[in-house]
What we know:
This protein is of the alpha/beta class. The chain has 3 domains: 14-84, Arc Repressor Mutant, subunit A (Orthogonal Bundle), CATH 1.10.10.10; 106-112 and 362-471, Alpha-Beta Complex (Aspartate Aminotransferase, domain 1), CATH 3.90.1150; 120-357, Aspartate Aminotransferase, domain 2. 38% of the residues lie in helices and 14% in strands. Strands 4-12-11-10-9-5-6 form a 7-stranded mixed beta sheet, sandwiched between helices. Strand 13 (389-392) and strand 14 form a beta hairpin. Helix 7 (177-188) runs parallel beside helix 8. The model is unreliable at 436-441 (pLDDT under 50).
Amino acid sequence: xxxxxxxxxxxxxxxxxxxxxxxxxxxxxxxxxxxxxxxxxxxxxxxxxxxxxxxxxxxxxxxxxxxxxxxxxxxxxxxxxxxxxxxxxxxxxxxxxxxxxxxxxxxxxxxxxxxxxxxxxxxxxxxxxxxxxxxxxxxxxxxxxxxxxxxxxxxxxxxxxxxxxxxxxxxxxxxxxxxxxxxxxxxxxxxxxxxxxxxxxxxxxxxxxxxxxxxxxxxxxxxxxxxxxxxxxxxxxxxxxxxxxxxxxxxxxxxxxxxxxxxxxxxxxxxxxxxxxxxxxxxxxxxxxxxxxxxxxxxxxxxxxxxxxxxxxxxxxxxxxxxxxxxxxxxxxxxxxxxxxxxxxxxxxxxxxxxxxxxxxxxxxxxxxxxxxxxxxxxxxxxxxxxxxxxxxxxxxxxxxxxxxxxxxxxxxxxxxxxxxxxxxxxxxxxxxxxxxxxxxxxxxxxxxxxxxxxxxxxxxxxxxxxxxxxxxx
Length: 474
């Protein structure tokens, strides 16, 4: 008969205490297999508890397989002794570094936006209106390409603002540009294009990593003052080229119309070629008229157009869009339209209303003015460096490219700034690694920093640049 110390003051029920005791006795080998257990009646009398308490403990042991019930005989320990002495090999877990909130006083991130400009009240209003006005059907799966209403709104917006020519049917909505690039990389495998892609160098490294993990051969192509070199591109065996013509990332070059036409001519020289146009930062241009998208002047269905609302509104708004040429749309419908849309229908409908009711246009006008003021202030603040710096990539996007004419290296500038609580971002990390030095930068370059201004307060722009000037001893 068991002698079990029951703690009547414990929050753990008595049946559970009895269950744990017997289970541990079995696991430790103190109760070997085939050992007969006391009947529920006799154990209840012995322990001076209700028979129902013992029944519940035995029932749990039965359900977990520690004991078995033999009719007209009683309860017996199951044949689980071989499990009692198994030792689990301890493995050293790889520590995961938690993401930390920036501890820097001045963070000139080229990736950030002014999060304070997010239209909270409008977004909340549209969300509330949507939940009130709609029935339960909205919580069912929608169109795999994205709800038609949102695609219609995107189609109109792209035509009016970027001169993109497309039907609603050509648009695929997805959770950001990264997802759409992954989907596109799969689709291109089913086209006549080869698995070789040319990319601007330096480039948007996220796109590079996506194509590398999808086992594409990447040919890095040098840039000149007009963008990607058509001469260097023509020397490669690539059938696909990835470009950011509206505001080249990270150098900020705006590709002029002549180079765009040359790029289209390259694509038209073979039926198997495509251009991926990532319309990065196209919404933010502070001088002159916006240049139409590459897709808008493409008459041969060679351009795959990709955009996102993440930079214009907020990174958490994971809504991107891709416009497919007809041939690739056929491939999508044949092989890939089983993918469900990765954007919730609630978010899609809020975004639809945000565009259709004019809020998006007003938000862009507001943020353009805000960013232009910060852009101008940063350029004015940098004049303190005089001839020690060269600024490029201005008048568009959300960062400046600043080349330093000093003896310090890029890493040394970044390290010195960090010691004074200034976070800087170097250009070198955006170069495609060479095959010989897979984890190294492209080549030694004059120290170049990407100075983002979108999420920096105006006073911090002034103070941060003055502090940077002081610590570099220029």
